[in-house]
Structures are given as structure tokens and as C-alpha cells.
Amino acid sequence: MGSFQPMLHPPVDELLPLHALGALETADHDAVERHLESCGKCGQEYAAWRETAACLAVAAPVAIPTAALRGRVLAAAARQGRLTPWPPLHIRGEGVAKPGVR
Hints:
Blueprint: H1 16-20, H2 26-36, H3 40-59, H4 67-79, E1 91-92, E2 95-96
Antiparallel strand pairs: 1-2
């Protein structure tokens, strides 16, 4: 007859990719962070997911919105109270320069 084995490891493995992308709600984020403090196996897996997320960030070509689209997005953000002032980006070559850099 089989014996009951309690689950000693919380099921965070499916949350690690989302955590690497910064896509978790606060409660899940905090739970994963607490778990990563004491679980080396999940820490290694999370490091791999972070590397993958970093590659995704530079895999897509830079898309520069048209002035009309930018205006609509900023107007919608302002109406919703989500507009945070930020210095304008100066475009250089194929990438986006840091704010204030010409």
C-alpha cells in the first residue's frame, strides 16, 4: 500500500517565467520572492528565465510610433491620470538613445 507524501515544495515553477518578465500580481510576486530566498533549484531556474527575458527584450526591432499614435496614447493616459512626465527620447540610428542624450 502506498504512503501519503505531503507536498513540501510549493508549485512556483509555473510562476517563474512570469516573475522574470515582471508580470506577477503583488501577492504572487512576494510569494515567489520568499520561495527563491530558500530554494536553490528554483533560483537556478529563475536565473535561466531572467536570461531568456533579457534576450526577448532585444529580439524585436525598435518600433517608433507615429506622432499621431503617440499623441493619442499620451492624451488617453492624461485622461486616466496615468501620465508621468519624462524627458523626450532622442532617436539615434536604429535604437533609442537615453533621455537627454543627443
